[in-house]
Design brief:
Helix content is about 20%, strand content about 45%. The strands form two sheets. It has a two-stranded antiparallel sheet.
């Protein structure tokens, strides 16, 4: 996932909110959590925790002499 924040950017709650919303819209993450911790009066540490959703689907394949089916992860 690409991020829209640089090391010198000002903390903008709306930008964090938009990034989180866009991440949820991808529907591939089970959990997303932003943790912002002040380190001094001019800086913060930002940690983003992301837990992937375990995606799977059913796959079917037909060849000349065989039929295969099963889960695809």
């Amino acid at each position: 996932m690409s991020c829209c924040f640089r090391k010198v950017d000002t903390v903008n709650p709306l930008a964090f909110s938009d990034t989180e919303r866009k991440s949820w819209l991808k529907n591939v993450y089970k959990d997303i959590k932003f943790v912002i911790t002040p380190v001094d009066e001019d800086g913060v540490d930002v940690v983003i925790y992301i837990r992937d959703r375990w995606n799977w689907s059913l796959q079917t394949s037909v060849d000349f002499s065989r039929l295969t089916t099963g889960p695809l992860f």
